[in-house]
Write a structure and sequence with these properties.
Layout lengths: L4 H9 L3 E4 L2 E4 L8 H8 L5 H12 L3 H7 L4 H15 L7 H9 L3 H4 L6 H11 L13
Length: 141
């Protein structure tokens, strides 16, 4: 018996919804291709069209208009977008409070639980006296 993609997707990821500002939205289960790059590109933009594109990709069409009518503010929108991205990345245990803490943190990457990149780990090791390289046998005689 053949199974459609939509049936498979619903079985694996479900069809969860969440009510945000009295608007029922689907909970993202996967991020659209290139979404994180667009977020990075638009991080300094406050143009409505840019924000609307991100919200629509995560939560569906016309959601931003409904949230604006409900008087959602910038912090609320940033919190919901952060939460939605975490959900779409598979972090179903990531709460709205976690998202708020991440955007108000001095170190958002750490608050999001993102691993440090290689350069950051090396710098930390140098500056804090962390793990060092193994001493060669020739040096220990």
């Amino acid at each position: 018996m053949s199974q459609s993609w939509d049936d498979f997707k619903a079985k694996v990821w479900g069809n969860r919804t969440e009510v945000i500002e009295n608007v029922e939205v689907r909970v993202p289960v996967d991020l659209p291709f290139g979404f994180e790059d667009r977020v990075a590109d638009l991080s300094s933009s406050s143009a409505r069209e840019d924000v609307e594109e991100l919200v629509e990709d995560l939560f569906g069409p016309d959601v931003l208009d409904q949230w604006i009518k409900a008087k959602m503010g910038t912090m609320g929108l940033m919190t919901v977008l952060t939460w939605g991205m975490a959900q779409g990345s598979g972090r179903v245990d990531f709460t709205f409070e976690d998202a708020y803490n991440a955007i108000t943190s001095d170190d958002p990457g750490k608050a999001l639980g993102q691993p440090q990149n290689r350069a950051a780990r090396r710098e930390q090791s140098r500056s804090t006296g962390g793990r060092s390289r193994r001493t060669s046998a020739a040096s220990t005689t």
